[in-house]
Amino acid sequence: MNNVAQALWVEMLKARRSRMPWVTVLGFSLIPLVGGLFMIILKDPGLARRVGLISAKAQIMMAAADWPTYLGFLTMAVGAGGTIFFGLIVSWVFGREYSDRTVKDLLALPTSRSAIVLAKFALVVAWSAALTAMLYLVALCVGAAVGLPQVSRHVFVQSGVALAITACLTIPLVTPIAFFASAGHGYLPPIGAVLLAMGLAQVIALLGWADYFPWSIPGVYAQGGDLPIASYAIVFLTSVAGIAGTFLWWESADQTH
Amino acid sequence: MNTAIETNCLTKRYGDVTAVDRLSLRVVQGEIYAFLGLNGAGKTTTIRLLLGMVRPTSGEARVLGTSIRVGNKKPWQSVGYLVETADAYPQLSVRENLEAMRRLRPGTEPKAVDRIIERLGLTEYADRRAGTLSHGNGQRLGLAKALLHNPTLLLLDEPALGLDPAGIVEIRNLLVELAQNQGATVFMSSHILGEVSRLANRIGIIHQGHLLQELDAAELERNRRRRVVLRAREGQAACAVLLSAGFAASIAPDGTIEVKDAAAIERPDELATRLVKAGHAPTMLDVEHEDLEHYFLRLVGSEGGDAR
Asked: CA-CA distances (angstroms) from residue A48 to A38, A42, A144, B142?
């Protein structure tokens, strides 16, 4: 595998010139903003009464207006919804080559196809990690602006670690979506796969098997559940299967688009 | 002479459909080889097979001495290509699209981008987003990507597609220059048959995945049908004169007389003399050569017919 650095430069150029980074920043920023709104409602019962349903929803989702509750909400949002955001990124990074019909220009180059796929995965991981870091920083600003009561640094470190581990469990699960984008030649099949995974995650969680379904596992962790070692193995194997399938598709399948 | 492309019984089937059927051809270095065929004849599949994008069902392709395998890294450093349509990243400018391609072709110097922009007449559009380019300029960008690294072999699928007449002449001159001055080999498919006959050293005609015929410019000249066409003020009477002289003349509804006898084609002056003597001097007389388009359609329409 050669020229990965240059392939990564090209992938970053394509991303920078698109609207996708801004769309994902905007989408991800909504999570701490919505959490901040709930905090305001919980802090001010009068306001909560005036806004009715939102108040009820806020009280169901969060018990108190404090930092541990607020940061815990963010971790749960990433655990439950991270697959959608990170899945959209991977769908765009791989699917756009088919929608723009540019994939054929990447297939017979001195830079190997594997290098290009690796660069794409590296971009997806960096992009998703940066979004998670941004989410945390925005949350710190929003929490401070809302005036949440002061807590020790330990709370911020512990919440940050929990958020990072949740992201580390979520990001690898998008690799099979890259395969669907490649084999499905565009955006729709991977987005369909994301929605299917999320839907199944809900159903399987209701059945009590959430520890063993890859796309339920980050949600279980985010809620503070104790995961068996098998859950981590399932996330790892799902990720490896997605990576292997995508590499094999690019290297070996007939490319007719 | 060195061989740039060689295929041996190259076959590609998709289920029951045979896209390319036992294709064996050889393209010599420095040659411009035109690949002609109707839509769905197998031209693009052949180019994809040569580029290792699809796996052959059977047979083998060698490009610049390397046996092609799907996913191979060799010999792409020396190959430039344009497959099907010229597409680019719409949000990137022309320059950025070329810079991206340059970086994916290690060893290509940074100046190559500006050089190819100028060579393809894209200077005015260099900083414009590719998504806003006209079809013709998009095609130029596609060709620029293929030519960026001075390849020794060019595989071009319909390179003149979408270009205006001036652009077609420009690209023709560019390809001829590459072949003659730089020794580059050009393997191109085209529908613009007039262009092909002006440009190509050799022509391969493919139909339903099968290579019907390979011929060079001289063979094409020999194989093309010729005829004498003429007009006179009294067409029917002039035609009768020629028939009575033993020529197989026929008259079209528009009054044009057509004579296909070899004797008439070799000595059209004799026809004119007879008509003048009979008082029906021709107002127009020409020896017409069948163009490549008609030759191609005749060949494809009557496989095994007299064009072979």
From this structure: 9, 7, 20, 60
